[in-house]
Design brief:
- By secondary structure, the chain is an alpha/beta fold.
- Helices cover about 45% and strands about 15% of the residues.
- It contains 8 helices and 7 strands; from the N terminus they run βαβαβαβαβαβαααβ.
- A 7-stranded parallel β-sheet has the order 3-2-1-4-5-6-7, sandwiched between helices.
- α5 links the parallel β5 and β6.
- α3 runs parallel beside α4.
- The longest helix has 29 residues.
- It is globular.
């Protein structure tokens, strides 16, 4: 399927690995010019090389900036004042007992996970509305709908993403700009692989994944009973970023393998 993304300029934050790199790859495969973002020149260069090994004719542009800070977000909008597609992928997570989560832990989680989205969207949304076209997508998590007690601050930051996404979508009425969030389930990234492996150190990873995603495991409500692949998230993002998804606006789109037990 041709998603009609040729010639579009897309910014994917934190796109040097994991889901972000797969989103950049999927958009590049569809012909978009993709801004590959990371915090170091080395990580950005490595990501570009990796993407081009998969998409030989990929049109990629490097951006070294830490969008988890106000300074980094300023560098980003100065380097690229206008984009057609903004994918707010940057996010961090950690497991900790609620009583041990300090004010600094909470502030850091919201500074990176929420304020990075606020700062970039605050710049790009008015630009898109002025041009009457554009897509803003935000990566949320199943934890926004099924808050995890061991990640209270992370869960709260992702719930805030859903609220922010809808608020911004309300500002797009009557335009050709859309704002949506993607509710991603547990995904097979390096961080998640390390996390699950640490829980079941005596198992092979395949065995550990089957336990974690199966009956009695930490994600036992999953209907597919496996981790989602990063490219499965990425392909949904590419579609929602395309002109073919023009009727999808203000939505929290679930790509969670049926993990969330809800019909809406």
């Amino acid at each position: 399927m041709d998603l009609h993304l040729a010639g579009k300029l897309a910014l994917v934050t934190a796109s040097t690995g994991g889901i972000g790199r797969e989103i950049a790859t999927s958009l590049a495969r569809e012909g978009a010019t993709v801004i590959v973002n990371g915090r170091t020149e080395e990580s950005v260069a490595a990501a570009i090389e990796h993407i081009q090994s998969d998409v030989v004719d990929a049109n990629l542009r490097p951006l070294v900036a830490d969008n988890g800070t106000a300074e980094g977000a300023g560098m980003t909008v100065n380097a690229f004042p206008s984009v057609d597609i903004l994918v707010n992928n940057l996010g961090v997570y950690e497991a900790a007992a609620f009583a041990d989560e300090t004010d600094e832990d909470w502030a850091r989680m919201f500074e990176i996970n929420l304020m990075s989205v606020v700062r970039l969207s605050r710049h790009y949304l008015p630009v898109m509305l002025g041009l009457d076209h554009g897509r803003i997508l935000m990566l949320a998590s199943e934890a926004a709908l099924m808050p995890a007690p061991e990640m209270a601050h992370y869960s709260a930051s992702k719930a805030a993403i859903l609220s922010l996404s809808r608020s911004l979508a309300e500002m797009t009425k009557g335009s050709r700009v859309t704002v949506n969030s993607i509710v991603a389930g547990s995904t097979k990234t390096e961080g998640v692989i390390d996390f699950i492996s640490s829980i079941y150190p005596d198992q092979t990873f395949d065995e550990a994944e089957a336990i974690f995603m199966g009956p009695g495991g930490g994600r036992f409500t999953s209907l597919i009973q496996r981790l989602i692949l990063p490219e499965e998230i990425a392909d949904l993002v590419a579609f929602v970023a395309s002109p073919l998804a023009s009727a999808i606006n203000g939505s929290a789109l679930r790509c969670d393998g049926g993990l969330v037990r809800s019909m809406v």
